[in-house]
Amino acid sequence: MKLQLIDVMILVFYLVMMVFIGWYYRNKAKENKESYLMGGKKLPWYMLGLSDASDMFDISGTMWMVALCFVYGLKSIWIPWLWPVFNQVFNMMFLAKWLRRSNADTGAEWLATRFGLVGRSVKASHNITVVFALIGCLGFLAYGFVGLGKFVEIFVPWHMVKDYVPFEVAPQYVPHFYGIVFTLFATFYSVLGGMHSIVLGDAIKYAIMTIGCIAIGVIAFTHLRTQTLQVPEGWANPFFGWNLELDWSKLIPDASKKIADDGYGLFGIFFMMMLFKGVFASLAGPAPNYDMQKVLSTRSPKEASKMTGFVSIILLPIRYTMVIGLAVLALLYYHQLDLSSASGTDFEKILPGAVNAFLPVGILGVVLTGLMGAFMGTFSGTLNAAQAYIVNDIYLKYVNPKASTRQIISMNYLSGMVVVAVGVILGFFAKDVNSILQWIVSGLYGGYIAANMLKWYWWRFNANGFFWGMVTGIAGALVFSHFFSGIQFLYYFPLLFLISATGCIIGTFTAPPTETEVLKNFYRTVRPWGFWKPIDRLVKLEDTGFVENKRFKLDMFNVVLGIIAQSCLTVLPMFLILWMKLPLVITLGVIATIAFILKRTWWNKLEN
Asked: If we measure between CA atoms, which residue out of 520, 568, 571 comes closest to residue 546?
């Protein structure tokens, strides 16, 4: 075990500090439901943006990205479009402010502004959103739990610990044991202090991660100056043709096996499918998780837009400095790393293996602490979102609508404990990080897209259509998960989308339209663009000064620029550490040009 006393002390100090933060904010969190779940909607946009970015910087996702970078090189920047990562650009340009104008506390509560408060279909649409949100949150908790256990096991071998544990742990459950230990710390400060402690904890974690990522980048840059990477031709080129054409067979044959297993060989088709799915997913708006909760917690719609724009700027360059740095170190010293597993080479072990092998004392402690904090931040943000749905949309709506503040806080504590327990149990049944990731982003979220896209842009779409679109989409995703795995989910997305869209259309036209007053209030308040002409005419009859939203073309122009800039921010640290001077200069020029344009087409035109 390479950990030295100073590394352990840094980690312990961080864990104690998180417990103290939760304890410090416990009284602030107890003031009322909004203070506990949303920070009273008084936190500044840059703090919420930093917190949101910090939550996205998770151990499991970063382990996956390092493995991708090792195998696919600079072409790996496109694979996270599976989420899709560019949904933040759509949120930044228009969807975040539309969402925030509702002044709701959760995504399910937001539906009342779109479909009203009464009716069987309205109730059903509310309930299916709560179910979807909780399934997603539990999936992400299991995803983080599995990644954390694999990570810690590298640094703290079980033979160093087992003599101090008063019970036997089977070898296959050692990662789960470690996961439970660190989960308890995350649970304590997030359940006790609510959103206030989560945001402050995320800010501290982000500062630690930034120091660690820059240190890794400097170490990799230094090592690379005296050595040459042994990689296939095309590895350092982010652009691609129809085929991936990365031949690892003479260097690391298992890397070729991974490409075949992943199914990314036909990269051109894979990219088009990602883009097709990603645009629809982005138009649907934020999924009901910690990302949506941060948007709803901002002070105003204008600040919601700023917050989502800030996320990419502070997340991508720092995160990818770590990703490329660890991938470079692993490539230079591949034979010094133990990546073996029962099923062959496990490239997800590169991150913990490279961190453990190549970082000096002190820096190792900082990086380890930052990555532990990354898990705790993602875990606590997801837990907070799950609590919001249970308390706001189940307990207060159906169980005890007149609950006192004390009862609400007690229910927050109880729901937090239950959600953590269920998430941990699900983690025991998960095969690996990638299997959960693919199921969430390609399966479950694939079923979410049609209904949540139509709700913004089509006036006739009603609660009945939303309910049946969600039911058919989620049911389709669950059925598909029994027959398809990995990237197959993506290729069957059009069929899943068609099934869900059919449910939306049939459900919509087998029920009356949403009440006219509800639609008029929504159109006046949220001010979306799309197919709203009949409602637009009615609103203008009552208010002759009303001007409809004519920003569709400008918003789409800004989205294209934003996606290009986001991609440049991703590849920028990779060009820097590989010291590819001309691409680096061109990338900086593109970022500066787009920033200049967006200052005039987006920032200067932000409104509430």
From this structure: 520
Amino acid at 40: G
285 HSE (CA, 13 A, CB side): 23
CB 194 within 8 A of CB 38: no
Closest to 502 (Cα-Cα) out of 528, 531, 532, 476: 476
Helix extents (H) in 57-173: 59-72, 87-90, 96-100, 107-115, 120-155
Contact 442, 489 (CB under 8 A): yes
CA distances from 196 to 29, 449, 563 (A): 7, 31, 31
Work out the average pLDDT over 451-464: 94
Residue 102 makes CB contacts below 8 A (sequence gap 6+) with 110, 113, 296, 525, 526
Q: Terminal CA-to-CA distance of the chain, rounded, Å?
A: 54
- At 440, is the pLDDT very low, low, confident or very high (cuts 50, 70, 90)? low
- Hey, what are 164's tokens? 């101090």
Distance CA 397, CA 301 (A): 26
Residue 538 is predicted with a pLDDT of 95
The answer, yes or no, to whether residue 1 has pLDDT greater than 70, is no
State how far the alpha carbon of 525 is from the alpha carbons of 414, 532, 559, 596, in Å: 35, 13, 23, 30
Highest-pLDDT range among 53-57, 294-298, 496-500, 503-507? 503-507
* Percentage of the residues of the chain whose pLDDT score is greater than 90: 39
Alpha carbon distances (Å) from 482 to 389, 396, 447, 452, 475: 28, 36, 15, 24, 11
- C-alpha neighbours within 13 Å on the C-beta side of residue 169: 18
Please say whether the beta carbons of 354 and 215 come within 8 A: no
Which of the residue ranges 36-50, 61-75, 126-140, 148-162 has the most confident prediction, judged by mean pLDDT?
61-75
60's tokens:
């499991």
Question: Residue 55: its pLDDT value, please?
Answer: 79
Residue 531 phi/psi, 5-degree rounding, is -95, 80
Give the start-end residues of each E strand in 293-435.
340-341, 344-345
- Estimate the share of the chain in helix, then strand, then coil, as percent rounded to the nearest 5: 75, 0, 20
Least Cα distance to 255 among 76, 399, 94 occurs for 76
Contacts of 533 (CB under 8 A, 6+ apart): 459
**Which tokens go with 309?**
């724009």
Whether 443 has a pLDDT exceeding 60, the answer reads: no
- Please tell me the distance from the alpha carbon of residue 443 to that of residue 277, in angstroms, as a whole number: 11
Res. 109: pLDDT tops 60: yes
At 232, give phi and psi (nearest 5°).
-65, 160
pLDDT in the model for residue 147: 65
Using DSSP, state whether 235 is helix, strand or coil.
coil
3-state secondary structure 146-207: HHHHHHHHHHCCHHHCHHHCCCCCCHHHHHHHHHHHHHHHHHHHHHHHHHHHHHHHHHHHHH
Q: Which of 113-127, 459-473, 546-560 has the lowest mean pLDDT?
A: 113-127
- Retrieve residue 501's tokens: 């869209």
- Which distant-in-sequence residues (6+ apart) come within 8 Å of 574 by Cβ? 69, 74, 77, 320, 323, 324
